[in-house]
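S., here's the first fold you wanted:
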Amino acid sequence: MFIIERNMTKNLPKQAKPAVFLDRDGTIIVEKGYISNPDDVELIAGAAEAIKILNAAEYPVVVVSNQSGVARGFFTEDDVKRVNERMLELLSQLGAHVDAVYYCPHHRDGVVPEYAIDCECRKPGLGMIKKAALELGVYPIAVVGDREADVRLAVNASVPGILVLTGYGERQPDEVKSMASFIAADLLEAAVWIEERFG
């Protein structure tokens, strides 16, 4: 798990701050499979506005993303970083701010030996949340994503899990949908729910 950007002051806050953890593909950017080209990055409609709502509520926004394409040999960590940087650039152009982006490049069935491992950072493991807690001085109040791993991450963290119906969200089985605390049409609806519930 590696942080690719952190926009924060040098000194961590004296008290941990409540943060919202967001999936990347299918939640913030359009799901396009194993994306490796920054030119393919496209924000989902309303994603920037959603993050701006969370920014206005002063919740740190942390992106946590499984990127097993690295372990599978489809692309490199540098490709992941370039895609993430393009996402951040597009969000910034629309006035939205992400505090940090973490990703897990591992998968036990990978073909690249150094990445072909089981690890705690791969969602629904808590590794990325734990790292953010240590590095950013935050704790989760909600997890938003379009897959089972995101909802189970929320369950493992004992916080509300919001399933968005963008990306793979609509295709999730009823069992996954029943685990979610809220099912949102998209990230914008999820952000409104979080702001109303915790704001």
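And the second, which I think is the more interesting of the pair:
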Amino acid sequence: MTPNPRSTWDRRIERAAELEKEIPSAAEPLRFYQTIACFQREIFRSATARAALLSQMMPLLTLVERTGPAPLAQAATDLCRNPAAWQSLLDGAPTEPAHAFFSRVLRQPRAEYAAAHSDIALNETRTTCPFCAERPVAAVFRPEGEGGKRHLLCSLCFTEWEFRRLLCPNCGEEDRDQLPVYRAEELPHIRVEACDSCRHYIKAVDLTVNGLAVPEVDELAAVPMDLWAAEKDYEKITCNLLGF
């Protein structure tokens, strides 16, 4: 069943506001995310109208100029002066982090809408999204029976698909000894699932520990865990919307 768009997006925004108070170290990015999520919610709601995403670029740039962190605000100013570059941001896969941000903000809600209205096989173990072929941004444990079943969460359309517990989503390593898990006391429902074979990691949001978590938002809030993983020379499989 397709999720109600109002409840889905409103819950993300509400969760970001909750975590902003609970995790001071992530307060600034979570405040900014709330602004961006409100903007994306309107794109999702208008998806049936097939309005051109290009028409949303200037409103987004103006919003980020006003509310975004300094590097993104400067990038928004630069792009405002160069409208010829806008279409290429939507058509390709920008490597410049700021450009990738603007592209994903606009494309993500439309991709999520399309995925929610498609028939997708979600029970296949694969390392890329079964709908849009993007890499996963997080793992999610959802309650099942006495424990939890592991899923992967797409970095673009937020589709979740089943994935084996003891398997690296990057290189396919299966040896338990090569797949360490790291936890932080302040975030008991989130953990770093690393791979010592390929030196990549993914964060996992465990809904069996905290049923109020919203995976795509709680993953954003766990910035300290990304910083810790980077210090240990692990590389994230895919960065989230805010570049962490």
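Why I say that: The mean pLDDT is 93. The chain has eight helices and seven strands.

Talk tomorrow,
H.
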